[in-house]
Every structure is written in structure tokens, then in C-alpha cells.
Known about the structure:
Blueprint: E1 13-19, E2 37-38, E3 41-42, H1 43-48, E4 57-64, H2 69-79, E5 85-89, H3 94-103, E6 109-114, H4 124-137, E7 139-145, E8 151-154, E9 157-161, E10 168-177, H5 178-191, H6 198-203, E11 210-213, H7 224-240
Parallel strand pairs: 1-4, 1-6, 4-5, 7-11
Antiparallel strand pairs: 2-3, 6-10, 7-10, 8-9
Bound molecules: cytidine-5'-monophosphate (C5P).
Amino acid sequence: MGNDPRGTGAAEEVWMIVPAAGSGVRMGLSHPKQFHHLEGRPLLAWTLEVLHRLDFLSGVVVVVPPPFLEWAESLLDGVKPPCPVRVTAGGRERQDSVRNGLEVLPPTCRWVCIHDGVRPFASPDLFRRTLEAARETGAAVCACPAVDTVKLVRNGRVEKTLDRRHVWLAQTPQVFRRDILRTAYERAGKEGHRATDDAALVEELGIAVAVVEGERTNVKITTPEDLRWAWKHLKDTARDGSRPRSL
Ligand code: C5P
């Protein structure tokens, strides 16, 4: 465990899992949204570009739908991540896909960073801050405070208005000590818990999850409107120099 393969001063290996095995039904496309082309490259390729700017990573696991395994290999040939890459098949729900990713991590991995394949605009700084917070507590997520008033709605009726001061919208990256995440997934498997993010399963263990402030531009590209915004954002950031032109 004491090796430092990337020469970063971090003694413990950090691997990233990128779940990208969704079907994209909300996008109304004939193919999953993570494979939709944006400025000539699939959305997933844009997301994976951040790997070039994360010097603490020892490796990455990309999780794709089973029919896309070969396709993902050729996409990765284009991205050329600067660290070892493993590709594996996803499952029915996001949680199943992340669990499949966990299964192919090497034994040397100590920290797991999970980042949605459809969030191409998370900054390297956001990854670093989330990892730092996780190193303190064992588990950390990034999230943005809600700006709208949040209502709990059932059957078209408001059940409750939540106190906005305490409502934060979770994003990825989320970072966990590997043994904590493994325990959370084992327990969820035994007890049948389903969750839409990984932190929720860790919360079930009663472990405190630290929150770092996320980024409003770290949008999960989900709808056709998001895709149009992403296209414009890519153009704007290339123009103002905040993203290398090669991206
Ligand atoms: O569906 P959702 O918005 O939660 O998707 C978040 C991320 O999880 C996406 O990158 C999607 O491709 C991935 N996912 C997955 N396997 C699934 C469903 C979603 O890897 N079965």
C-alpha cells in the first residue's frame, strides 16, 4: 500500500469508477446519452478528458452497457488516459453498474472516486477538494445548496415544503475509503436498499459523509436541453481559454 506510482506524494492508490452504462431514456435518443456526439466527440470522451488533469489517480474503471464494451475500448484509444484503464459491463441500475466496477478494482486500491460519465464539466479542483475531504472523514460528496424552494410532492399534491437552508443537491465526484464503500454495497445487497447515488448507501451505515461545495456548471447531462447547454458551454469555455482548445 505504501507505493506512490504517479510520484504525487500520495501514498495510497486512488482509482476512479465512471458509471456510463445508462440507457438515456430521458434524452429520447436512440442511443445512450453518454455516447451522443458533442463537437465531434462522444459525451463520455469529454468527461474522461479530466483524467489528464488528475495526477493523484492510479487508474480508472469505465462501466458501459454490455453491447458497448468494444466501442468503449476504441473511445479510450482516442482519450489516451495517463493511467491504467479497465472496462467492464454495467447492470440494470446505476447501483448495479458501480458494484460491477468495484469488483474489478485491484487489491492495491485504497480510495474510490466515483464520477458520472455524463458530467463533463467537473473541474480538477472539485475532484481534489472532494478527495481531500474524504481523506479526513472516509467519505465525501460534492453538492450545491438549493436555490429554489423544494417541495415534497406525491400524486400531484404538495406533501411538504422542505427548509431550503438544509437542502443540497448532490453531484459527483463522490469519494470513499474503499473498505467503507465495499461494506455499504454488501449491506445494500443483503438488505435490498436501492439508491441513486453511492453516498446514500454509506449513509445507511451511519457513517458521516462530508459535503464540499460543488459547481453549478457540473451539470448531469440528462435532457435534450442539457445537451444544447453543454454544446454552448463547450464553445464558450474553449473561447475564453478556461478549457484547453484541444478538448
Ligand atoms: O441515470 P442517472 O442519471 O442516475 O445516471 C447517472 C450515471 O450513471 C450516468 O453516467 C449513467 O450512464 C450511469 N448509469 C449506469 N448504469 C445504469 C444507469 C445509469 O452506469 N444502469
